[in-house]
Amino acid sequence: ISTKVNSEYLFLNHRGKGITTRGVRKIIGKYVTAGNFLGKVSPHSIRHSFATHLLEGGADLRSIQELLGHASLSTTQKYTHLTIDKLVETYDQAHPRAKE
Length: 100
What we know:
Elements: H1 21-35, H2 43-56, H3 61-68, H4 73-79, H5 84-94
Helix pairs in contact: 3-4
């Protein structure tokens, strides 16, 4: 990330231009190969993980919607995935008979 260049882009290439979609995929592919990840990792799956981690950390859906730049809350809901642990935790906290 460059702090010296006034740019509309967050990530810049070595020429000071915005990184292309292809460039982002290439960088991710490099780290996926080096890190021995299981399963497919892509910019899209990273967005899903980002949204899910925010939700698990207590962020509300409306805030996540803004951070992802979605016009529709229903689109944001497709990006967030609850883990079984989070579902059990919610059940235990919210259901009046969960502790009986």
